[in-house]
Structure formats: C-alpha cells, structure tokens
Design brief:
Layout lengths: L1 H20 E3 L12 H10 L13 E5 L10 H15 L3 E5 L7 H4 L4 E5 L10 H6 L2 H16 L3 E5 L10 H7 L2 E4 L4 E7 L14 E6 L3 E3 L8 E6 L6 H4 L2 H4 L3 E9 L2 E6 L11 H15 L14 H6 L1
Parallel strand pairs: 1-8, 2-3, 2-4, 4-5, 5-12
Antiparallel strand pairs: 6-9, 7-8, 7-10, 10-11, 11-12
Length: 316
C-alpha cells in the first residue's frame, strides 16, 4: 500500500514538473473527424485576437491543399485554422485552391505568401506536378515558377507533410530546408525551444510542447541545416523501439525552422499530424507568427545557426 501511494505521489510530482515546463496538447481522441462548426468555434476562441506584428499593408495568402499521395486527414483542419487566424486577427486574407494551375507566373503574382498544406505526391518520382499533369515539361515549368516567385520575395509556408512536396527535387529541397525521409509510428513527441528568446517561439512563453505526432525525419538539404531552427524533437523521449534505430538518434532532429530563399522567407512547421496539437493558443500563435514572418511583417533573425550534432558532442 505504501509503495502504491509513493508511486502515485512520484507520478504526481513528475506530472506537475512536466506541466510547468511544457505546454501540453489535448489527448488524441481517436479517429480524425472533419472540422465541424463546434471544432472551428473552439479554435476561434483559442486563436489570438490580434497579430503579433502589424501588417504593413493588405496581405493575400494562398493556401494550396492537394495530395496525390497520402491524404492527411488534418489538412481540412489546417485550412480552417488559417482562415480563422486571418479573419480574427486581420493579418491576411486567404484564398484556397487545389488546382496546380495556380502556380502560373500570373496567378502567383497575386499573393504575398503561399501555404503548402500537407501537399504529398505519390509514385517513384515523388513529383506532385507530374502526378497531376502527366507532362514533365509542364511540371518543370510550374516548379520553376514557384522557385522564382519565392526568390523574388513571396513568402512560403510548408506544413507537416508538405516537406514531401516535390520530394526528389534538389532545388525545392534547398528552398524548403529539407526533404521527407521517413517517420516512425505516431507517438508522444517532446519539442524543445532551440532559442527560447527567439521572437518566433515567443508563443510558447519559454515552455516546450508535448503532443502526439509522427516523428518526422528529413534528408537531402536537411543535412546542411541551412536554416534557423525553432523547435527540436527530443529523441531521448521517443519510444524504445524508435530510440534503438541509429538513424533516428544519430543527428539533431529539428521539426520547425525559418530560412531565406533569395528575397523570400520560408517557414517550415512540422507539427502536426493531429488536429489536437492545434487546440492550444501556443501552437495557433506559433503558426500565425510563422505566416507573418513569411509575409515579411514579423521581422526576426533568420540567419542559419552553426551546425551542431549533440550526439557527437556527447561522445567526445
């Protein structure tokens, strides 16, 4: 009996400490359901009332949501969230599309930022444009339009699965800061703030973030880490099977970052596979601030930090 009480007390103390150091997302409820009105009202109540930075003018944001491969069920939730953030704060106006022809030069010129919402390709080429058009030449043209658009100053936001957008394209990987490699099974994920004083993680008020997610791992341009990391996944707190995989623990695992691509600003937000992760004011503010960064309204240091590998450092 005494041992049971002691164990309960220790668990309560540990839980209290964890709660003090981390913002905890609601528990996953099971099957992901479409974002009904009740859920959207909940998000609206949690969303910030005003933008962190005052927009320098009217801002137009394109939210592109199309997958030819894996269909993330959270994509409709993300679309709804971005619309709510734009309307409630007045920071930007949203146009939604799932038509690849929106990537013509003429149509892209009408937007200040582009949000890729869980855009996942299929097939061996991992090329969304080829999947849709079945025309490699036209596909390269649309990809070039996007690259040029961002280079000239349009902002780019990629959310969760969108890191796989044009996954085998070296140019797109360089622009995004990486490409999708693989992910272990969905599980509890602990995120730490890389620089607690950085403006783009102010939403977390110095705390880390605990939620259930797919622990994404990246390749290609990620190896260079030519970006400013914002959130880091604590691999030591993943499940035992995941920790036993050398390819998981052999490098620092960032899940959110910002970077420049020419004159454009790029924000990658790995969270989340689950709508529950967004049911916190902290994550909603983080997403809003990242979009405002891409728009050029929220200024911050986005210079790449020195590459580091904590695993190798500990081994010395």
């Amino acid at each position: 009996m005494k041992r049971t009480l002691l164990a309960t007390f220790i668990l309560a103390v540990v839980s209290s400490v964890m709660a003090a150091d981390y913002t905890v997302a609601p528990q996953v409820r099971g099957e992901i359901r479409p974002p009904d009105q009740q859920w959207q009202r909940k998000i609206e109540s949690l969303a910030p009332k005003k933008p962190t930075a005052q927009p320098e003018g009217p801002r137009k944001v394109l939210v592109f949501s199309l997958s030819t491969g894996y269909k993330h069920q959270v994509a409709p939730h993300v679309s709804a969230i971005i619309k709510i953030l734009g309307i409630k704060t007045g920071a930007f106006e949203v146009t939604s599309s799932d038509d690849v022809e929106v990537f013509t030069e003429e149509r892209l010129e009408g937007f200040d930022a582009i949000v890729l919402n869980n855009v996942c390709p299929t097939g061996p080429g991992r090329d969304l444009f080829v999947d849709v058009l079945n025309d490699p030449d036209r596909a390269r043209e649309l990809e070039a339009n996007l690259l040029k658009c961002v280079e000239k100053g349009t902002g780019l936001v990629a959310i969760h699965g969108s890191i796989a957008f044009q996954n085998n394209s070296t140019a797109v990987s360089d622009m995004l800061g990486g490409s999708f490699d693989f992910h272990p099974k969905r599980q509890g994920v602990t995120l730490d703030l890389v620089e607690p004083s950085h403006p783009l993680v102010a939403a977390f008020e110095g705390k880390g973030f605990l939620h259930e997610d797919e622990p994404y791992l990246f390749k290609n341009a990620y190896k260079q880490k030519n970006f400013r990391p914002l959130l880091e996944m604590d691999v030591s707190k993943l499940d035992e099977k995941t920790r036993s995989n050398p390819s998981v623990v052999s490098d620092v695992r960032y899940v959110a970052w910002v970077k420049r691509h020419g004159k454009g600003r790029v924000f990658y937000c790995g969270p989340s596979h689950q709508p529950e992760s967004y049911e916190t004011t902290a994550m909603l503010r983080f997403l809003l601030d990242g979009i405002q960064y891409a728009l050029g309204d929220l200024r911050c240091d986005d210079s790449p930090t020195t590459n580091r590998n904590p695993i190798a450092e500990k081994a010395k």
